[in-house]
Amino acid sequence: MNFFGNGVNVLLKKVTSLLLAIALVPMAAFSAASASAPVAPKAVQTAVKVEYNKKQIAFPDQAPIISQGRTLVPIRPIAESLGFEVQWNEATRTVTINKGKDNIRLVVTQKIAKKNGQTINLDVPAQIVNKRTVVPVRFIAEALSYKVEWDPKTQTVLIADNVNPNQVGQQEKPKDPTKPATDEKKPEQVAFIDKESVKGKTFSLANLGVYQIVGKVEPGTEVTVTLEDKTYEVEVTAEGTFEFYQSTNDGIRSYTLKAEKDGKKDTFEGDFQKTN
Fold it and tell me: Which residue intervals are annotated with compositional bias (Basic and acidic residues) in the record (predicted)?
């Protein structure tokens, strides 16, 4: 009895070891398969291109990506290609874009942007990829007021100048080549500058030219002076008088004075009088 009982015990131990070995095989195979399975990235690098008025925009260090089914583009190359100023605040992680009188702000990871204080909702939030801020293409259309289209055949984002909605139906009619040029509407003439009061003087100082312009304009106008290819803002007093000084290249003989107010302009072309 003891011999038979010992044999049964030995047999049971072998069967148990075999079953345990078989049970471990699929678990090990599952673990190996899980370890080798790749994790799908959240943002996919693609061969997306961006064009502005049919001219391709270069992205030197970060190409456009696709995230959550949306195309995102680096905002700085886009904005600078369109001629806007872009600023980055690391402390608040805020991008600021100045477009003429418009101010646009957006914060990384937030799904909203602000344009002149008004909220713009975004499909996906702005993100930091490779140390560059990327934004959804829709942001360019809604915040920067451009026409944006997608060409699936060439994988290209097409950005184009948009028509100002305030001008729809008010575009100028094509000019009639049969009519003389005198029929064209002439700009309204205004007289903001007191031409008799404007005087320009210049003298040389160590290879530099020192220039002075004084005069009087209508109070409340904005005045600028252009010397060769450079334009300078001029401060005007409450009475309308101004005095301009500037040292720059020697040999400038003439200047252009402009005064603007309420969307109207007055221009004066003057010559400098040489003094000792």
Answer: 172-187
Place of tokens 């990327």: 134
Per residue in 107-125, pLDDT (tens digit) is 888 888 888 888 888 888 8
What are the two backbone dihedrals, phi and then psi, of residue 232, each rounded to the nearest 5 degrees?
Answer: -125, 140
Determine the Cα–Cα distance for residues 266 and 76; give it in Å rounded to an integer: 37
Q: What is the pTM of this model?
A: 0.42
- The total number of structural domains in the chain stands at 2
Give 248's Cβ-side CA count (13 Å radius): 15
- Residue 163 buriedness (CB in 10 A; 0-12 / 13-18 / 19+): exposed
Cα distance from N-terminal residue to C-terminal residue, the chain:
136
Residue 267 CB contacts under 8 Å (≥ 6 apart), including other chains: 193, 256, 257, 258, 259
Q: Which 3 state secondary structure label does DSSP give 95?
A: strand
- Residues spanned by the domain of 229: 195-274
* pLDDT tens profile 33-71: 444 444 444 555 557 888 888 888 888 888 888 877 788
Is residue 56 domain-shared with residue 119, that is, in the same domain? Answer: yes
83 and 146 inside one domain: yes
